[in-house]
Amino acid sequence: MKFYHYPHCPFCQRVRLVLKAKGITYQDIPLSYADVKTPTDLIGSKMLPIIDFADGTVMGESLDLIKELEKRFPEPSLTHNWIEPDLDWASNIITRAPKFWDIVLPYYLDEYEGSPEFDEAGIQYFKEGKEAKRGKTFEELKADAPAMYNQNLVIILAEIVSRVEGGWIGQQFSMADCVLASDLSGLRSVKGIEIPPQIISYIEKVENQCGEDLIDW
How many C-beta atoms lie closer than 10 Å to residue 205's C-beta? Predict the structure, then answer.
């Protein structure tokens, strides 16, 4: 099994945590962010994560992949008689904070400096594409990050804290926790904000459960 991913990417990290939680052996293949050919050859577009399964099946899309991994490798279970409502909530909560990615994106380059995805060409591709989409430079986004955080994330994070204060999103650890922790992880790199300590503890708890450090590439 081959796992194509970007170390910084939260959608890739979702799958990475599930792979680790299930103890699945795989070939780790991080790509340069400027590598358009490899993912396009595999699934027809420049999107990661991708898994090339041993039987020749090639799939993308993080939620589809973690469900497929649960089906192919049912033990240990990460659904517990299925947790679709929890998974839906976990995968959609960040979309309710429209400035989330504006806040964290510039800091991925700092946190994952030197990783395979951010070679010279990868940095340029990532930076130019993200800045063009947002109409601001990374330096401007960093300057705006504290204000955007206070205006857009504080209430959402309070809701997340209330949901996970019992330990997990549901009654037991599940793939929903892998999704949420991956999406939130990038906040740990942002300067000038005060993240609720419960959020930090939750991310670290999920990492410990899976035996994987999301920032360690």
Answer: 16
What CATH number belongs to 84-210? 1.20.1050
Q: Do the beta carbons of residue 181 and residue 207 sit within 8 Å?
A: yes
> Is the sign of the CA dihedral 93, 108, 146, 202 positive or negative?
positive
The CA-atom distances, in angstroms, between 12 and each of 36, 42, 57, 182 are 16, 16, 18, 8
- Name the pairing type of β-strands 2-5 and 50-52: antiparallel
Tokens encoding 35: 């590598």
Q: Give the span between the Cα atoms of 10 and 6, in whole angstroms.
A: 9
| CA-based max dimension of the chain | 49
Beta strands in the chain (DSSP E): 2-5, 27-30, 50-52, 58-60
CATH match for 2-72 among 1.10.10.10, 3.40.30.10, 3.30.379.10, 3.40.50.300: 3.40.30.10
Distance CA(135)–CA(25), nearest Å, equals 41
Cβ contact 26:3 at 8 Å: yes
> Amino acid identity of 123?
I
Residue pLDDT, tens place only, 52-94: 999 999 999 999 999 999 999 999 999 865 567 899 999 999 9
In this prediction the pTM is 0.95
